[in-house]
Amino acid sequence: MTDTDTFESPVYYDDDANRDYIDDKTVAVLGYGSQGHAHAQNLADSGVDVIVGLREDSSSWGAAEDDGLRVATPVEAAAEADVVSMLVPDTVQPDVFEDVREELDAGDTLQFAHGFNIHYNQIQPPEDVDVTMIAPKSPGHLVRRNYENGEGTPGLLAVYQDATGDAKAEALAYAHAIGCTDAGVVETSFREETETDLFGEQAVLCGGISALVKAGYETLVDAGYSREMAYFECLNEMKLIVDLMYEGGIGAMWDSVSDTAEYGGLTRGDDVVDDAVRERMDEILEGVQDGTFAREWIAENQAGRPSYTQLRTAEKNHDIEAVGEDLRGLFAWDDGTESEEQEAEE
Length: 346
Ligand code: NAD
Ligand code: MG
Ligand code: MG
Ligand code: MG
Ligand code: MG
What we know:
The chain has helices spanning about 20-25, 35-45, 60-65, 75-80, 95-100, 115-120, 140-150, 165-175, 180-185, 190-205, 205-220, 225-255, 260-270, 275-290, 290-300, 305-315, 320-330, 340-345; strands at about 10, 25-30, 50-55, 70, 85, 110, 130-135, 155-160, 185. The protein has about 350 residues and is an alpha/beta fold.
């Protein structure tokens, strides 16, 4: 097992969890998407009483029933439950919360997998309920698959409000029942989880990486190189590099690439991500911390997502997407579905 003694945050494992805190309770899992289906099925297979809460017209209703789960409306599910797990999309959680708040009795728990709505006050829970977070650090299908394979999924734990004095013990028991303490659960706060999540996806992961890829692609194409070569170098190879870093850290990546790539990268990388970029990262972080981003995103949703829709369309129409669609057809891994070209060749 990893030596976690040097970690800044406490880490909890199976032995730290007492399942008595969840085994006799009823958990309402609201939503049956990525996280919802995994939490609901893992909890049920762990012997916890689960009821899935979905809108009556939800296409997931039948799927949850086919998976052997009880399904009801969010209000009915919450009425029966001791723990309400809020696993509908973050943007609809405030509305769903208003529907179910009357069903939260003193001592019940409102549980999240992401802190946005609590941290930015979009949900203001009653004072007599526990408010906790168990956030698996994986998409739901892996949370489910790992559990079925007898492996765990690392997760985060946070307590925002401890009305009963048992909030953390119950959250740990929940984490145990969905398989997270098997791999390790790291303690954080709603604030830290929310702010690091938003910063990461904006500056480094989703926003940063896609902008870097597009900028590199455009630089090569504008200089007269072929779109195919630009795609291979700036997008396709990204996965190979990221896989190496994921498995063995940045050092494993440097070890695997050629000395030429290593020297070139070590001498030029900081020129791309220079002090000016670092300053803008600070600005992005400030916008997360002071709530500017949250207010903008909430207003965008209230207005019917006009900018979001426009940005999405522009992104889909970027030249790299057209080249990529054709080139990915060359790869056998292309999602198991053969491209028209491949089919024509056979
Ligand atoms: P999702 O979009 O995959 O699924 C949402 C589910 O909610 C769907 O079943 C949908 O039918 C249902 N739903 C939508 N509107 C509803 C309504 N008004 N009433 C009832 N049900 C409704 O969502 P997700 O990605 O699983 O996200 C759920 C939570 O988990 C979010 O807080 C998210 O931030 C968090 N989270 C997600 C991941 C991930 O990998 N997807 C990882 C960690 C945490
Ligand atoms: Mg209740
Ligand atoms: Mg409780
Ligand atoms: Mg996020
Ligand atoms: Mg190369």
